């Protein structure tokens, strides 16, 4: 009974990479494929035993920047680029500067007014009394001090807004960094699969010449090789898209893709629910901004209450009396009477704003707790997956493959069982990489105060 074309194609591809010299000496064995995840390396090792197997093993390797032809970028490099080039950080910094200008303006005293004053013009045919007038508004009840206090808390709010935006940018950079790393590795893996497919086509065509396989089986192997090329095309597009998103967050879309350095398998984040939640509720810039808003609302209410006390306006004029040739002086003092307008409308509004600001703190705290619960669940799941792959699934898949290989050599298992075990181990290894990427992404989200949106400007 003939094996199915796919099994035949895959077996020939695997044998082409690891067969001993002799029968298939013309089939070139590809070298070990190396690829790094955040600066470390995974290495595809070839087992040159009688079965002819290719096994993906996860093994740390020292990074070799000289092998990639261009300098590698670290996560720290990307963060520095983003802090210098991301436009939202400049906007947030200018918002702080504008608020500081408002704080300065709020404490400035009103300017005096200078004018011309004339009385009794034409009296007895004379020019009357003519001279200069100086008036000054006297601010009462500490309104300037209260106004500056309001503006000071506004400055504090926009400082928290700047800190929140910085977290958003850095978190997007870090998440994009891991996304590009994984996409970068998938391109390299698919390149290996394409080479395997091409060598499998060559081997199958040679077997066709020897009349060991049919033309239909050759066509099937070519179909599998073409599908591998399509997968490589998709992987390259995925890598290109991930890099374009990352470069946009960096504020440098003109940067061409370069290799990234790092190691996903080292220093895995170990987070704790209680510590993480306490840190979030203590250091969150969103919560700090809301708390500063409460203080601002309290100062604004005090300022509006102080507005019930009217300001004084004093003035003095020095005039020359044309008829008597005397110099005379006038002094005036005016004070509005708060009979109808006692600023009661603005006081009611300030009271409402204070109550709303206090409840805004509570709303943000509850929202942070809710989002943290979701984020921590995803982190815990990915952490459990990584541990399961590391401690159980990967070792079991490797042990199963070794047992089946041994049984195959002894005739206990068929070649299809062997290939299934090989493909299972390969798939488990890729799933392990995906779990590592998910773990780091969720850790970035939790350690970054749950803030994302590095190109979105908060109102």
Note the beta-strand portion: 5-15%
In the CATH hierarchy, the architecture is: Up-down Bundle
- Write out the strand line-up for the largest beta sheet, numbering strands in chain order: 4-5-6-7
* Total count of strands: 7
What this model shows, in words?
The chain is α+β, with helices and mostly antiparallel strands. The protein has one domain (5-110, 153-296, 357-447): Outer membrane efflux proteins (OEP), CATH 1.20.1600. Helix content is 61%, strand content 12%. Strands 4-5-6-7 form a four-stranded antiparallel β-sheet, with no helix packed on it. Helix 1 crosses helix 4 (143-209) and helix 4 (143-209) packs antiparallel against helix 9 (415-447).
Keywords:
elongated, 7 strands, disordered N terminus, Outer membrane efflux proteins (OEP), four-stranded antiparallel sheet, 459 residues, alpha+beta, single chain
Q: Can you describe this structure in just a few lines?
A:
By secondary structure, this protein is an alpha+beta fold.
What secondary-structure arrangement, pairings included, does this model have?
Blueprint: H1 5-18, E1 33-37, E2 40-47, E3 53-57, H2 75-85, H3 87-106, E4 113-119, E5 129-138, H4 143-209, H5 215-250, H6 273-283, H7 285-306, E6 312-321, E7 327-334, H8 344-409, H9 415-447
